[in-house]
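Build the 3D complex.
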Amino acid sequence: MHDFPKQVLLIEDNPGDADLIRLRLIESRTQLDINCVNRLSEGLASIESMPPSVVLLDLNLPDSQGSETFRKVLEKAPGVPVVILSGKEDEALAMKAIHQGVQDYLIKADLTSRTLERSLRYAVERQAVLRSLEMSRKQQLEFKDQFLSHVSHELRTPLTCIHQYASLLFDGLSGPVSPEQRDHLQTILKSVNQLHAMIRDLLEATRAESGKLRIEPRCLALVELASQAVAMIRPMAIKKRINLQLEAESHIPLVYADPDRVLEVFINLLDNAVKFTPPEGSVTIKLSQQKTDPEFTYVTVTDTGRGVSPEALPLIFERLYQDPDSVDGNRSGLGLGLYIARELINLHGGRIWVASQPGHATTFTFNLPVYSLSKLLSAVIVHQQRLRESIVLVRVDLKPLASPVRGNWKEVCHECLNLLRRCVYVDKDLVLPAIATNGPEDTFYIVASTDMERVNIMITRILEQLRVLTHLKSIGTVRAMARQVSLSSEMQDVSVEQQVERVAENITEMVLTDLRTMNGFNKKETNANAN
Amino acid sequence: MQTEKGKNDTPNFSRAKILIVDDDPELRMALKLRLRANHYETVSAGDGYSAIALAQKERPNLIILDLGLPAGNGFNVLKRLQESDALSHIPVIVLTARDPQSNELRSLDSGATAFFQKPADNNELLQVIRASLRSASAWGTTLPC
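Done.
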């Protein structure tokens, strides 16, 4: 019923085996296009130029051995069925191959034309079934995505109406309100906010599932973010007489993370901790570095709650997981918070886990990658094992016209960052990730490893494009300036890594000096305006 | 009617005229009450077509715009406003139940000055209205005092 695969790619270095397999194939079918190569590199090239219907693969080739061979073929041809032909029985290797997506593992000595023919035919068929399953899974996810986005829109409209009218009443805009009525209205508004948060979580969880969750990492001081989260949770903790504290080791390095998303995770963990800790207990959030793992900063949130049972531990980060013993009258929410938290931390390249002593305490721990300028820099400023000769630091200032609106200004800055990335020379310049500052204006830095003349061309282009962006109505002034980064002469004797390290230090120093003077400048400006 | 906190910071913008565009009459009414309590003048429209007509006739100082509208959705309204020399300077705040991830940047790209998802925090919204009116006036629009 189904056609036998027509184009067979045989990757086999032993001429005797190759002839034998070719013979077996021709015995079974007459019209076959068999392409035989004897190196993996040739096989991969052939897959790229013309994908075959099926790949017959020997594992031990002159340029690749064992599992490495099928890993590379699968990577090159994700949709093409692969059948391994091996000289020896190796059940462990065969299982590994099947688990990674290989369709069959055949032993050369056992081959007859009939078994080979059947194996190839089924391999192609299985691959087709797999593909259609994957397609329908994707379609279903897409459908779920659309459905939820539609539903959440429809739910938000009446929710907004409740919110608007309740807050009109609450604010006394429809006449005087008694303290009792105010109290009731407050309860309505609180519930509206809960409902709103649930709708948001529902959408976020679906996004996480379909891989559409996005983060925008910048260079970030975790301590500030943690204090912000603690300040937000404190009223709730005070109400329950829970001692909420923040402990941070000194010298916590900057991390590379999305501030809004990490704040979300902090709040989620703290909120849970306070919720599950009895009155008079304590919740502690702690930031630390571990000597064994200097590339990450660790955050722990520890409570003195009743803990998590050993059976629940592996399930706690799963979607819709809810504590079955949670009968304290609290509304528990959808059970998506920790799932979203885990997805967000994973997207940052970190990990999150939990440990608990039932009846005593629970500790959630997660880590985030430390921001490393030298790691980012080495890709652009090292050329042919040498530091490039000229390194220029370009600074682009953006000031809003009026007092900025946080959400809007954030989007404006995001757009600017994208624009800057389009203006720089690929592989030669690097737009540094934004540094979280408190000020309303944003400053962007570009490390350029091109000569001054080209830097000037780049700056002209940046300024032109920034002015063209019509929707950036709220931008007041744009300024750009460039400075040479000094490369000291003694650097000749040290390794390239150390040179990059020093250049990174120089640049960091320049940026920090800049930001310090800029803050002073702004304060003066504000004073002048106030007068 | 009572005056809300923060209103006194910028008394000269309070008489500005705001066009509310939303297809839900109850939401239009709630927004109108909120804005009037803050001493703004309001006019309102329930669809894209009358939004443009009203903008031309009334020349509002600011527009609050929903995205899902009959007779030309919010993006069409933004486009029409941008194309008109007389109206393109008016700041537009998008206030919608739609998802920010797929609509926020698109709105800003189409000419909106700010994006809010419903239900929006009233104080934040009022703050943005004030800021937008200030920057609009700095860009050369005259406001009634």
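The beta strands of chain B are 17-21, 41-45, 62-65, 92-96, 114-117.
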